[in-house]
Design goal:
heterodimer, A: about 400 residues, mainly alpha, MetI-like fold, 2 domains, about 70% helix, B: about 280 residues, 11 helices, about 0% strand, globular
Chain lengths: ~400, ~280
């Protein structure tokens, strides 16, 4: 009945739902989306030289060449180096250039002090008399890479790559090439934890869904209890139980499975045990939801047509549960990738996941560009996974 | 499930139940095992043999660090609840009344805090708050925890709204009630259990949150999870087991209550819908 009353009730024309959602959207945009975007943008921007040495940065962008720069540029660098040394900002440029060329720090401070003492710095040759490194292209390339406002330095570094003096992408020195290994380790741990959750969780979700609700509900509490308990508390519980003189080692020795205590914690084994435990409810609960929605009619039809129970399960039931398996596995994998607390507490010191590197660059080395680049690379595959999950869920008829 | 099962089917069922029993044990026993360990009179992490003692609970209660951290956590969680519950409830009502197409981008924004890895969230807040000087006060942590708690409030309240008949609201409005009155006097009582459950989720999200707190809380704002994290890092003692026991009991009671509220609300609604549709 398309009367005027029906029209005013048309959901498309209501404005008040948007007014109700607006405060939350504004809050989340300001307190969540904005910080994440600002943080990620640090991975791609380079403002140290631009801020501290504005003239030199402009001249560097203007120069755009390889090899040694014109003397005008050397002059500007020398002037701004002295000025920055005087007002205490040279540190920022020195740190930034040091990421690109090790030894830049001492080069800048040494040169600035000599210039302050009266050494001439009006040409490349004059600077090279103070320190021969000014006569080689590497430091000039490092400055050009940092002239802003955008940079590929941090993202390349997070992939163990760098730009050489001729702007070709090359691998970093082998002793600095650590991130590829840490990423692979992070993905491997997360994928295996997701796999363990599938193996342990699928039968449990199936059992829960196959029981009448009266009997499933008490069992469901056994899944909800760990779900309600915080990840930190459960990790702490594992830290207590897995100690070399802890309950599990004593138990295994008492029943004769072990002769001497084994190391169960502060290694990869501890990470697998604790993370699977922490994340298993996140797999079981969504899968249980999907399984509850599957009508038993198709299964009954299959058996009445003569399919063996195994065949009916594999051909009829299993395919219908795959969206739930994919959803649960993606949730577990996603959460595992970014986990910080659990690997930090039960993992081995030299066997950390990428979150530990991000924390290191944030809190200790204060290289925020690097922390942001590592985060950006961590997010990129997650977005792909979410898209894949959505496509998968749509492709498989529920 | 048919009662006429073939022999292999019965064997399969027994194996399934055995396997699931082991998984249930894996899920629950580690949490429960901590409880007896916390009553240990000695300093070893083994089950107490002959005597039980509250020694480690006295250690916690007598430690200014633990009590201060507990007070901080309560304050920050309470403030988070006060911000997240009304914002999330209003948004859930708006979402429930919205057409599905407009919903998609909004739901994506609201659930974003759940999808972004928590360490990324933590440093994003740190980079924003450090230059603003918010890292040492409680404000930064409260804002961050509210952002993390909001999706839970929206999801829980939205679920509570799923059976609500919006005709009721229109009826109230057509009788002359102002929109604010409709929300407060008609809708709010209908979804009160859902709102309460959402508030509990918001509180526990903040109370349990460790990663963001580790990054952005100053020394004065140490929360219980930070205290616990550093306790486990420094020395795993029965005091950790005692703190874990208290937290397990607290979260089980609170979230168990929230779950009951949620189900009660669900039953009420299902009951009324079934009555209306004559089932």
């Amino acid at each position: 009945m398309p009367g005027s009353r029906a029209k005013s009730a048309d959901p498309r024309r209501r404005w008040w739902p948007f007014a109700l959602v607006a405060p939350l959207l504004i809050f989340l945009l300001a307190s969540f989306i904005l910080p994440v975007v600002l943080m990620l943008s640090r991975a791609l921007t380079d403002r140290e030289l631009q801020t501290v040495w504005p003239d030199s940065a402009a001249a560097l962008r203007h120069w755009h060449g390889n090899g040694l720069p014109p003397d005008v540029l050397a002059q500007r660098v020398a002037r701004e180096m002295v000025a920055a040394r005087r007002n205490g900002t040279l540190n920022r440029v020195a740190n930034r250039l040091n990421y690109d060329m090790v030894g830049s720090r001492t080069l800048l401070y040494g040169t600035a002090d000599k210039l302050l003492a009266g050494a001439p710095g009006n040409s490349v040759a004059a600077l090279a008399r103070i320190d021969p490194r000014w006569g080689r292209p590497a430091i000039w390339a490092a400055m050009r890479h940092a002239d802003g406002p955008l940079t590929s330095h941090y993202l390349l570094a997070a992939l163990d790559r760098r730009l050489d003096k001729d702007d070709r992408i090359v691998g970093v020195a082998p002793e600095q090439a650590v991130f590829t290994a840490i990423y692979l380790r992070t993905f491997k741990i997360s994928a295996l934890v997701a796999l363990f959750c599938i193996i342990l969780g699928y039968p449990v979700a199936y059992l829960l869904a196959s029981l009448p609700e009266r009997r499933a509900n008490p069992l469901l509490i056994l899944v909800l209890l760990p779900f309600w308990t915080s990840a930190l508390v459960r990790t702490a519980a594992w830290a207590v139980l897995l100690q070399t003189d802890g309950v599990i080692n004593s138990l295994l020795q008492a029943i004769g499975l072990l002769d001497a205590p084994v190391q169960l914690i502060y290694n990869r084994l501890g990470v697998y045990i604790a993370m699977t435990h922490v994340l298993l409810p996140f797999f079981i609960l969504p899968l249980y939801g999907v399984m509850k929605g599957i009508s038993p009619v198709a299964m009954r039809a299959a058996s009445s047509l003569g399919a063996s129970p195994l065949r009916a399960f594999l051909r009829i039931y299993l395919p219908q549960t795959l969206p739930g398996v994919a959803a649960g596995a993606i949730i577990v994998f996603t959460l595992a990738l970014g986990y910080y607390v659990t690997p930090a507490l039960v993992g081995g010191g030299a066997d950390q996941m990428i979150s530990a590197s991000i924390a290191f660059y944030t809190n200790q080395s204060l290289n925020w560009g690097m922390a942001a680049a590592l985060s950006l690379l961590l997010l990129a595959p997650l977005l792909l996974m979410l898209l894949a999950g959505r496509t998968l869920a749509r492709a498989v008829p529920a | 499930m048919s009662s006429h099962r073939s022999r292999p089917e019965r064997i399969g069922r027994v194996l399934l139940i055995l396997f699931c029993a082991l998984v249930f044990a894996f899920l629950v026993l580690p949490i429960l095992a901590v409880i007896p360990l916390s009553f240990n009179p000695g300093s070893f992490l083994v089950f107490p043999h002959d005597a039980v003692s509250l020694r480690w609970y006295r250690v916690l209660a007598g430690s200014p660090q633990w009590t201060h951290a507990f007070g901080n956590s309560l304050k920050i969680a309470a403030a988070t609840t006060l911000i997240a519950t009304p914002l999330g409830t209003l948004a859930a009502i708006g979402l429930a009344a919205m057409r599905s197409r407009a919903k998609v981008p909004i739901v994506a924004i609201i659930t974003a805090p759940l999808a972004v890895p928590v360490v990324v969230v933590a440093i994003a807040f740190y980079f924003l708050f450090a230059p603003l000087g918010l890292v040492n006060g409680p404000a930064g942590l409260i804002v961050a925890h509210s952002a993390l708690a909001l999706p839970f409030v929206v999801i829980v309240v939205h679920a509570a709204l799923s059976g609500i008949d919006f005709e009721l609201l229109r009826a109230a409005a057509s009788l002359g009630a102002r929109p604010a009155t409709v929300l407060a006097r008609v809708l709010a009582p209908l979804i009160a259990p859902g709102i309460a459950a959402g508030a509990v989720f918001a509180f526990m999200t903040s109370f349990d949150e460790a990663t963001v707190a580790l990054f952005i809380a100053g020394p004065e704002q140490r929360t219980l999870p930070i205290q616990m994290f550093e306790g486990v890092r420094e020395q795993v003692s029965p005091a950790i087991a005692a703190a874990a026991t208290l937290l397990v009991i607290a979260s089980t009671l609170l979230l168990g209550a929230a779950e009951l509220l949620r189900r009660r609300g669900e039953r009420l609604r299902v009951g009324s819908t079934a009555a209306r549709s004559g089932e």
